[in-house]
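Quick one: structure for this chain?
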Amino acid sequence: MVKEREDVLDVFIKQFKVLYGQRCTYKCSCSNRYCPGYTQFQPTQCASNTSYGTPSFCSVPGRMADFNASSVRVPSVGVPDNLVKTVQCWSSGIDPYFAQYSGITLWRYLGTPQGFFRSYPGSDRVSCTDYDPRTRPWYIAASSGPKDVVLILDTSGSMSNFNRISLAKAAATKVLNTLTINDYIGVVQFSNGASIISSPSGLLLPATLSNLLSVQAAVDNIAIGGETNYEKAFQMAFQMIRNSKTQEKSTGCETLILFLTDGVANLGAVDDALLGEIATLNAGVDAKIFTYSLGAQAAVLLPKAIACANNGVWAQINDGGDLSSQMGNYYNYLASSIINRTRAVWTEPYVDASGAGLVVTVAKAFYDETASPPLFLGVVGIDVKVDELLAVATSDQLLEYLVYRAIMCPVVSITPCGLEFMRSQVVNENGATSKCEVNLTCPERDIPQQSCLQQGIDYGFCNVVAGSEYTKEAACCPEHVVEGGPNIAVIVGCAVGIPLGVLLLVGIGFLIYDRCSKTSHVTTTTGVPQSLKEET
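Got it. Here's what it folds into:
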């Protein structure tokens, strides 16, 4: 059964690659029928006998769905319109393939680096500009693999200006929400000196649900004051990394440092002296350092130099800026440079917010292999009910297998030209370039995700919010329904599904958490059943 789902995933990916290859010649007529508020949307079937869930505002179980078409959602800010429209266009031809496998899968979907999200079956929402797949654990796990992540947060007095500390905390929360049970996390705060706030032991922590909640509380309680000492911050971060690796409190995979500041260093080593010390600290660790200047007036030169010298990317985040796009630079780096990209990833179990009950997601990244280096195009995912998996394995065996499927370290390889190209794609709100201006002779390269929009076609981009009455009419099953849709399982609505998940928690030993916020983390392990191993 595991192999069957992965085979279906490969069918979808193969077709997405074909559609992408035809993006400039494919005569698409992308319409607005996938957006809420437009009467062309045809959710003609009440999925009352399936596991597709019940919207919270509906009075009867089930949801109206279009089993002939997918629907799309996009992030609210930060992505150029033409890029998202282009993805919306070329990916629209997937619907017949999504529909072909309605009998064996639940929700199936595509998430892209532009923040575009396409899901099947088509289902109406109050807004289609309120979702960003790039922050979802299934997307991160498939596109980046296990990793050690260290956040370094500036807590000096200048962070009170324009309430920048709130921006830093929000950025940290964005990162924490993307981590999976296969990752490790550490947080350092700095001003005059530096301290580790994520763990009393001073070591990296596995990103379990309980640990993430603890780290989040520590971030929320940060106080500000003092001067700005970059040197102490990096000394403390590398001390934590080295101690963690020595004591095997680490994934043993890629190490990523995310450094957030708003000010100029006015204590400790600066400029070339600081860059030299970081190079010494990083010897043998090979951490990639991503730096973020918070606010329009934030320090730029030194944070950018640190990223350029340590195979990272610098970005500026203005007050009220797009955190999801900019904080995602670190996993876009991994997604774009991983070379062992043939394996699907299975998430840990979680309660589906749409009411499907306890599910796992099998997801896989895919690439344009004709580009050099291969260009990351997105992640395709399929939801699978946990009880289907439990039909072939015990809960402990299932957990062990899912972890086993996710723990392979990514092999990362990116050329200097490829890294510089990646930097060139960062959109800074003040127009500053993230390119490092290194002495490279790189071939000219057009952006493969170029806009191929044909003149005169109305692409009907999702940029509206429907009224509540329309949404209820379009998304809710009537009180007297004729059952429709694929016959998969008995529906469990949101109000019923979560208590049922709690009961299942007792029965199968999983920790579960609402998919709307983040997935949970599972806690028990035993042997992997041979039947599952043979299917890989």
